[in-house]
Amino acid sequence: MDGRGSVDRVFAALGDAGRRSLIETVATRGSATATELAAELPVTRQAVAKQLCSLADAGLLQATRAGRETRYEVTPAPLEEAVEWMVSVGSAWDERLTALRRSLSGYGKSRSSSQPPPGSRS
Amino acid sequence: MEVEREMVVPETPDEVWEALTEPERLEEWFASEAELDARPGGEGVFRWGDGDERRAVVREVEEAERLVLDWDDGGSVAIELEPVVEGTRVHVVESSPEFAPALELRALSLEAAAPAWTAAAA
């Protein structure tokens, strides 16, 4: 899992006040196009489009083609990545602990049936 | 981010400790192939059937009580054993520190971008 790399991209994308305010605006509106945002913000449509592109590259915005325009919305990608990690690591531990329990009980039985007490390792 | 699991097994902490620290025992429940030098600074290499391999360095060892490994991807896992009436309580915490900044950034990108953000990023 490329956790570090994606964090760096997030840092880079958000290391600019203009881009941060763009994300906020998109988040507030739900979704937005460069044209809509340029009408609201004191910047040109071109500048907005460029920034939206870099935010999409960083995985913070999701782009969907809507006619001639590209519509952007905030993506929960970093969050999803983290949730995915929790689910996969959590289920890995569920399986491991079940296997550990089985291993312990099998080991204990074979050891006590072959009778030497704890302390004498095989 | 953390994943936490707990279970109680009928074996003693010493018996569980062997299963946590002896490579051939680890291969019964943790990984298909295991190498572990269970001393502070010791190295661990774990391989799974699907070709996955993880490397770790032992951060803490308290015999029959606590084992902490730092994964080379930045995460860590702490396994603690506690004697209880029924046997041993096995407590596992796996942490993934690299997701923490991503989540913070995510939260901050949706709130107003505060100056504290810039300080944290620096």
How would you describe this structure to a colleague?
The complex is a heterodimer of chains A (122) and B (122). In chain A, 67% of the residues lie in helices and 11% in strands. By secondary structure, chain A is mainly alpha-helical. Chain A folds into 2 domains: 73 residues, Arc Repressor Mutant, subunit A, CATH 1.10.10; 38 residues. In chain A, β2 and β3 form a beta hairpin. Chain A is rod-shaped and about 75 Å long. In chain A, 23% of the residues are buried. Chain B is an alpha+beta fold. Chain B has one domain: START domain (Alpha-D-Glucose-1,6-Bisphosphate, Chain A, domain 4). In chain B, 26% of the residues lie in helices and 42% in strands. Chain B has 4 helices and 7 strands; from the N terminus they run βααββββββαα. In chain B, a hairpin with a 3-residue loop joins β4 and β5. The chains are: A mainly alpha (122), B alpha+beta (122). Chains A and B meet through α1, α2 and α5 of A and β1, α1, β7 and α3 of B.
Topology:
The complex is a heterodimer of chains A (122) and B (122).
Chain A: H1 3-14, H2 17-29, E1 32-33, H3 34-40, H4 45-57, E2 61-66, E3 69-74, H5 77-113
Antiparallel strand pairs in A: 1-3, 2-3
Chain B: E1 2-9, H1 13-21, H2 23-26, E2 33-36, E3 43-47, E4 53-62, E5 66-71, E6 76-84, E7 87-95, H3 99-110, H4 115-121
Antiparallel strand pairs in B: 1-7, 2-3, 3-4, 4-5, 5-6, 6-7
